[in-house]
Amino acid sequence: MKMRKTELTFGLIIAILLLLSIGSSLISCNRGERNSNTVDSAELEESEETKVKSLTVKVAGAMQQEFAITAEDSASLNGTCNPDMWANFGIQFRSPGYSWLAVTLMTKEAIQTGQTGDIPLDWIDFSYFDEQNNSVTYKGKGTFNISEHIGKASDRRLKGILKGTKLEGQSGAEGKNIDLEAEFDLNYSCGVEK
Fold first, then answer.
1. Which residues contact 179 (CB under 8 A, 6 or more apart)?
2. Cα separations (Å) of 87 from 82, 121, 135, 169, 176?
3. CA gap 33, 104 in Å, rounded
4. Are 105 and 87 in contact (CB under 8 A)?
5. Residue 172: what pLDDT?
6. How far apart are alpha carbons 29 and 177 in whole angstroms?
7. Where are the alpha helices (DSSP H) in 42-100?
8. Which comes out higher in pLDDT, residue 3 or 182?
9. DSSP result, 86-112
10. Per-residue pLDDT, 22
11. Cβ-contact 104, 69 below 8 angstroms
12. What 3-state class would DSSP assign to 22?
């Protein structure tokens, strides 16, 4: 029995060291390969100005609804868009009947500061938690087009449109599909020019 406790303790210590090593490698890799022409958004002080200027979401298929969010509404931008790695960010917002809704994306490649045009996506996710305590997620392939992207410290802007066709229902919506179009205008950029 004593030997088993020692083996378990030793295994736990090894697992913790492995996790710390992976985390440390990711941090040093991210810092070591930084684009010399940009600084990470996190290096700048947070602006008092809201990051989500506007968001329009149109959903068709298993769910038929349209949402329009302005700077006066409660919406938040979460995640990261660092020009040295893939982008993974989303906009979470509220609407009558819902505790929260969110549109999230994951790119296949990094988005460079100021880059516009079509961006290859890994996936798009549309999820919500309604006031009846239903948690629902739809996920799948889609397109992302950036129409305007300014990365100056004094003037940041990211405008684009996400489109997903036949996003598949995951938790709470198995066997269902939706089409999604989300157009947004953000006081944000993927990195900031020096």
1. 59, 60, 61, 164, 165, 166, 167
2. 7, 9, 25, 23, 27
3. 26
4. yes
5. 85
6. 38
7. none
8. 182
9. EEEEEEEEEETTEEEEEEEEEEEEEPP
10. 37
11. no
12. helix
Chain CA centroid to CA 45, Å: 20
**Distance of CA 90 to CAs 6, 51, 118, 132, 133, Å?**
44, 12, 18, 23, 21
3-state secondary structure of 24: helix
Lowest mean pLDDT among 14-18, 119-123, 160-164, 169-173: 14-18
Mean per-residue pLDDT, 155-161: 96
User: What is the residue whose two structure tokens read 């030997």?
Assistant: 3
Residue with tokens 């994951």: 106
The length of the chain, given as a count of residues: 194
Token duo for residue 93: 């917002």
The span from the first CA to the last CA of the chain, in angstroms, equals 61
Compute the average pLDDT of residues 133-155. 95
Q: What percent of the chain has pLDDT over 70?
A: 74
Question: What is the overall mean pLDDT for the chain?
Answer: 81
**How far is C-alpha 9 from the geometric centre of its chain's CA atoms?**
37
pLDDT tens, residue by residue, 69-87:
998 888 999 999 999 999 9
In contact, 47 and 186? CB cutoff 8 Å: no
